[in-house]
């Protein structure tokens, strides 16, 4: 009977305070924590094989805030920690990912037909629109590919922006802010063709 009474008291305490501590000194818990773990052992997260960032499987639905360790290498997922934003899975970036995570800006048009001062181009929005297939509607996808588009980074500040090459006779006074908005001047009629290379790097 004593054991039952003790269990009831413990459950009442957990319910009343909505806080749980695992490990040493269970009577003390950080006032800001719902769950505190203390000791010389780690926390083992749920391990599952995701199928694609846009699919909830093996969960039945996308759940905002869900965090898991993915064990599969398939489609656009590879082993590592993933969190769910309510619509898709996103991989938690590690230092190993940073070493190789960069990609070129999708093709976009710059009007260089005449002199223009203080022009702006939102590089992040251009990239997001193209990857989500929302830019022009002129796109083709392979059989079986998700119609929702290509996974993309959710906010502009997830990336660094670099221009690795441009023609200074055409583009002048170029700057890019932290949100990927490029400001520039155009000096027209200097060349028949001009290229500009823009690279995104994952933070």
Structure report:
The chain has 203 residues and is α+β, with helices and mostly antiparallel strands. The chain is built from three helices and twelve strands. It has helices spanning 2-17, 95-98, 123-131, and strands at residues 20-22, 35-37, 47-48, 67-70, 80-84, 89-91, 102-104, 116-122, 159-165, 171-176, 181-186, 197-202. The strands form four sheets. Strands 3-4-5-6 form a four-stranded mixed β-sheet, with no helix packed on it. It has a three-stranded antiparallel β-sheet with strand order 7-12-9, with no helix packed on it. Strands 8-11-10 form a three-stranded antiparallel β-sheet. A hairpin with a 4-residue loop joins strand 5 (80-84) and strand 6. The longest helix is centred in the first third of the chain and has 16 residues, at 2-17. It is elongated, with a radius of gyration of 25 Å. 10% of the residues are buried. Residues 1-16 have low confidence and may be disordered.
Output the radius of gyration.
25 Å
Low-confidence stretches: 1-16
Q: How many beta-strand segments?
A: 12
Helix percent band: 10-25%
In short, what is this structure?
With 203 residues, the chain is an alpha+beta fold. It has three helices and twelve strands; from the N terminus they run αββββββαββαββββ. Mean pLDDT is 83; it is low at 1-16.
Task: Set out the fold topology.
Blueprint: H1 2-17, E1 20-22, E2 35-37, E3 47-48, E4 67-70, E5 80-84, E6 89-91, H2 95-98, E7 102-104, E8 116-122, H3 123-131, E9 159-165, E10 171-176, E11 181-186, E12 197-202
Parallel strand pairs: 1-2, 3-4
Antiparallel strand pairs: 4-5, 5-6, 7-12, 8-11, 9-12, 10-11
